[in-house]
Amino acid sequence: CGAHTNFSEDVAINALKQFEWNLEVACDNYFANPDAFAVKTKAAAGKKASGPVDPAKIDSLFETYRDPDSDVIGSEGGMERFFADLGVDPEELVTLIIAWQFKASVLNEFTRDEWKEGLTYWKCDDIPKLKEKVPAFKALLQEPHNFKEFYNFVFAYGKDTRSKGLDLNMAIELWKLILKDKFHFLDMWIEFLQKNRKHSISKDEWALLLDFANMIDKDMSNYNAEEAWPVLIDEFVEYGRAQLGDK
């Protein structure tokens, strides 16, 4: 992408390093938020950064979607209208990516501070600007480190704040959305859980399932039960091998 831009060699190298020299992903993320990759000079380092966003417009936009009885954008229609204006289906994966980028702490809810910080970081103070960022949001997950960070964020975001674990049905719906085309045994995993699991998913089980999905062979022959896998995954492999043996 360097041939079609005017950024410096230092900026290009900085962007490529952050995305493990993946040119396509680095370009997508650079164009989405070029200031994030700027290499500051000593003279500029002490200066306060100024962004091309209008804080008043960000506040006004928050008021457009804010719930009538609380200072959040949430379940009383505001979040649904926000995604509709953004041209995004509320069931799409990108809604979770936006929540991750806004550092949202409660499912289907943005506080005023989360809204301000998220839009300011992405240099957006209106819906058209944010619409332009949607492809860049999606591109973030092409980098494995970002995907893992996003995946682990979703556990905390999706669970009840009063609970340590993630509700089983919620976990299943989130896995369907996040691990589609990434986990060969996703359908079997869901079937196994629906037959054998009655309570919530722990943080450890959630996190290690991604590692399992990334390493397991299609015949499960490379699974080593002596390694530190959760009991739930040990039991799934027993179930899965029996299923595979019957085919």
TrEMBL record:
GO terms for molecular function: cullin family protein binding; ubiquitin conjugating enzyme binding; ubiquitin-like protein binding. It comes from the Eukaryota. One of its GO terms (biological process) is protein neddylation. Residues 53-241 form the DCUN1 domain. Gene3D superfamilies: Cullin, PONY binding domain, EF-hand. It holds the Pfam family UBA_4. GO terms for cellular component: plasma membrane; ubiquitin ligase complex. Keywords: Ubl conjugation pathway. Neddylation of cullins play an essential role in the regulation of SCF-type complexes activity. This is Defective in cullin neddylation protein.
